[in-house]
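Data availability (excerpt). All sequences and predicted token strings are deposited with the supplementary files. A representative entry, 3'-phosphate/5'-hydroxy nucleic acid ligase, is shown inline so that the format can be inspected without opening the archive.
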Amino acid sequence: METKLETQYEQFETGAAPVKAWTRGVPIEDAARRQVENVARLPFIHGHVAVMPDVHFGRGATVGSVIPTKGAIIPAAVGVDIGCGMCAVKTSLTSHDLPETLKPLRSAIEKAVPVGFGDYGDHVPKASEKVWYQRLKERYDLLQQQYPAVATSKSPARQLGTLGGGNHFIEVCLDQDDAVWVMLHSGSRGVGNRIGQHFIAAAKAEMERLGVLLPDRDLAYLKEGSVLFDDYVDAVSWAQDYARMNRAVMLERVLDVLKASFKDFATSDHAVNCHHNYIAREVHFGDKVWVTRKGAVSAQSGELGIIPGSMGAKSFIVRGKGNAESFCSCSHGAGRVMSRGAAKERFSLEDHALATAHVECRKDTGVIDETPGAYKDIDAVMAAQSDLVEIVSTLRQVVCVKG
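Structure token line:
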């Protein structure tokens, strides 16, 4: 349900569709702004483009943007980590139940959920997961027959229940009432990447075939009604379902670790599993449109979502306010304030260790690009979108697992 609220966005004109940006008090780099303006100039934008406070430069379209379209979809705007998102659940534990030393708990989680970019041939679906996976496998087999290029050497079956690397993580957190939560971030793994790459290339080839000139080649689009469009929507739907299942499987495995470690362990009904890189068919301003959320979360009225900070910052469970101007969306996190390369040059291991002193996590050079200073101030990000969501729970991590 959409709601007309007193909004706090800033609007700038592009010569075509306007842009409404929830960026008061947070930085937006010039390169990201140019990307947003390029998107707004496309002829099939519905109304305006919405920009979230975690906005930063991405491939083709900015991360932290909501792109409503009629008659076309931009594969690169969805990206290659299709269906990437968050999952979280509250447990019956409190901080008093946790051991003084948390490294064994972190090690147990890393053993239960493989991390990094491997294939994990010995990590196959459990019996309880096989019905889910079989349904997805049947759809994937059909897709693979039609488009052999989406096949990947990293089997979707073997990567089910694995984290990946980069900004993907698993965390044990405490909320404002001292309750323990499990929260994780991951997507559709290698197979989602192959699907994204294949259709991005196909869209570029289609633009060349049709002689369409674009301000950025990564804004190549597929026209609704074409075979490519229909196949892309089907493939993205598959990848989004796979990503959601992948998070659910990992969450179950982390909870199994906690069940084995603590007596009288239980979880609450207060659980969330949401995408932030995806497409959806929705009705906005009276029209049915395709909504691409690239680094943005659905925030329909009453809908629960997750907005994480960085390795050393707070995260939030939020409830959407259904703000129509944002196409009922909010940010998907704090958002990067500098590139990974810039973070590696700027921050030392000592900087990283100090910023994550309160967290049991990796303190090595492999995660310097994920250090808290590489991200925007999460409090400023939340303040900039107070008309989009209300905070339900504030979480701080005590354990963080990264690939």
